[in-house]
């Protein structure tokens, strides 16, 4: 029902109004890109200014007349607003303009419907669409709002509108149930990775910042990557090898956008939870973008919303190949800790610097040492194996065991405390613990 697309672009008139009191207005260029991403064919762009939205039509009556003429002139099938409309405003506009009207949320939902590839992605999109549609159902059934009386016309006790609302509620509950199952499976996967001490690194960032291109370069996964908004929708995870750390999981996530509709954040909770429970976030930024600072701000907003604002973060300034004479580099704070990496995912320049920075940040609180144990200390050896902390093992000529250990320092200290041992009392090759 939700994934049938028209064969050619629909002729669309775009509407963008400026409101002086809005400190963070949506970018009209990004709006146009969204429409093109959805497969629309913009035939005109109507802009204007108002102090507040018109209660009935969002635009004023003069602008409404201009819109009517524009729709008739171009024989447009669709009018798209770069704003969120109320259900009644959408309905009133459709009655006046005699064509379909779509708001910003509806537009983003349509793009998401086109991009969803996996079963989970499609479920998440459908859930968001159904929730959005449930507030607008009345639009299609105005002729059936009242129950008809008379012989042979007495219905089963509910209008067509009520029947549809009931069916929608049922479908929403069914999808929520299935997504809850997906959430539990993901949670189980995260728990087993934590038990195995495998760190998770998540790529986050504004849509079209180059996350999937970077993901492909690092993992050679062949994930769909295009120069368009919301090219990636489904969560993709791959195991990677990091020097000194060993295995880690790299997760690619859905791109963020300014004023990402709340119901989308809700629907994609299962996917976004992956980012919220990561050991490290790689915030990918389109370095040459004019609105770079604003995009960074918008991503930080969404991270706050999903409870990931306080996670360790490394900024990745991408697309430096589009900047004149710009060489890859790592920016560090006063303590020498990596803050940002400048690279090009397209050409691969600087990706090795990213690997080094990730290794530094993940290895900060890790013990990567060689431990020598006496045969009598086999109990500690068993505990380290339980935590998947042993990456290599050798027996020396004198019968002692040489263990290559990789473990979070906090986990190691907890194990040693339970075994009534101290870190310094053990025989380490070096005492330079992270």
Automatic annotation (TrEMBL):
Record-listed GTP binding positions: 205-212, 230-234, 252-255, 318-321, 344-346
Any single GO CC term annotated in Swiss-Prot or TrEMBL for this entry: cytoplasm
Record-listed Mg(2+) binding positions: 212, 232
Molecular function in Gene Ontology: GTP binding; GTPase activity; metal ion binding; ribosome binding
Ranges of residues in domain Hflx-type G: 199-366
PROSITE patterns reported for this sequence: G_HFLX
Biological function: GTPase that associates with the 50S ribosomal subunit and may have a role during protein synthesis or ribosome biogenesis.
NCBIfam families: GTP_HflX, PRK11058.1
Assembly notes: Monomer. Associates with the 50S ribosomal subunit.
Family: Belongs to the TRAFAC class OBG-HflX-like GTPase superfamily. HflX GTPase family.
Name of the protein described by the UniProt record: GTPase HflX
Species name: Pseudomaricurvus hydrocarbonicus
